[in-house]
Structure formats: structure tokens, C-alpha cells
Amino acid sequence: MRAVGWLRGLALPDVPEPIAESSWRRIARVKLVVFPALALLNVLAIPLSAYSPVPIDPAVLRRFVAVNLAGHAVVVGLAAWLLWRPRSERAWRSATYVSIVAETWTAVTALWVMGCVTSWNYLWMPILIGFYRLYCDARLGAFAYAVAIALHAGLVALVCAGVLSGAPLSPVNAPAIYAHPSSILYAAGWIFVIYTVAWLVMS
Questions:
Q1: CA 84 to chain centre
Q2: pLDDT band for position 3 (cuts 50, 70, 90)
Q3: What are φ and ψ of residue 99, in 5° steps?
């Protein structure tokens, strides 16, 4: 019970953690710069794939860009809406919860196309967890952690069930780890440990 109380205290501390409107607006402005830039890099991957030293499936790449840009569009749209006119604390927080899901979605789609347990894109998760915990508050940090675990675990489950390929962007170069679900689950378990340690350390 003490452990449960301790974890609850990390996610829902008894001390107030107010977020000034100037901080909310600064976060929204950063998103208006960062996410269009990341989206542009993903779009540029389509013409640049012609120069890749390894064979790339162009259909998979185009599908990835489409589903990935949807997440970027949600993040940018919410940030623009929040900055358009003064918003209440509830509006800022509610929109940020939705934005966290969309931001995590952009990372998970990259994990899907490049390898759910072998792509470096899993590093975006600790970045998001740390940002929302340290710059915002405990509730948003805990939510970012929970969403990272949920979406990444869902992707891993779909790969293990054979619904999705392990590394579809370049199947001929897919690592051997995707040959059996047990190896995928083992690697995913360690990644989830990293997410958990990142959340605990930053809390």
C-alpha cells in the first residue's frame, strides 16, 4: 500500500503546481515552430528515399507520412487555436491532453515504420515525459508516461500478433529480432523500463 501511495503522490502531488498563462502560450508557440519543421523533414523523406543505400518500400513510406502528418496537424491546429484568443485554464489543459496523444502518435508511427523495438524514435518518449513533467506539472507528466506506454505497447502487440510488420520500411533489412514475438516482447520490456525510469527520475 505504501508503494501505491508513493506512486500516487508522484502523479497527483498534494502541493499546487500552477502553470502561468505565459508558460502555456510559450509551449504553444514552440509547438508551432517545432512540429511543422518535423513534419517537413518527414515529407522530405519521400524524395530523398531515392538516394537511400538500402531498398525502401515507397508505398509504406507514403502511408507513414500520411498517418504521421495527421498527428502533426492536430498538434499544430490545437496550438494555433489556443493562441488565437485568451483561453481558460481548463481549455489549455484539456487541449494539452489531446496534444500529448497526438505528439506520441507521431513518435509511434515512426516506430512502426522503422522498427517498433529497434528504432531510435523511442527516445522521443522520454523527451515528452520529461518535458511535461518538468516544465508543466505532475499530472501532465504522468499522462505523457501513460500514453507512451499505452500506444507503444499497442504497437508491439499488433506486431507480435502479425497484424503489422516489424520494420516494414525496408523488410529485406529487418533485424532478426522480429522473427519471434518473444524477442520483440523482451526488447519492448526494456524500453518500457526506460520510460518508467525517466518518469520516476524526473518526478
A1: 25
A2: low
A3: -65, -40
Contact 35, 76 (CB under 8 A): yes
- pTM for this entry: 0.91
The C-alpha atoms of residue 158 and residue 64 are separated, in whole angstroms, by 16
- In the numeric block, which cell numbers belong to residue 55? 531498398
Please state at what angle helix 138-160 crosses helix 2-11, rounded to 10 degrees: 110
CA–CA gap between residue 18 and residue 31 (Å, rounded)? 21
Residue 185, Cβ density class (10 Å: 0-12 exposed, 13-18 middle, ≥19 buried):
middle
Q: Which H or E run contains 153?
A: helix 138-160
Retrieve residue 63's grid coordinates.
502511408
CA-to-CA separations, 13 to 9, 23, 129, in angstroms, rounded: 5, 20, 17
Calculate the alpha carbon distances from 154 to 11, 29, 52, 80, 159 in Å. Answer: 22, 31, 29, 30, 9
Mean pLDDT on 4-26: 71
**Enclosing H/E stretch for 23:** helix 21-48
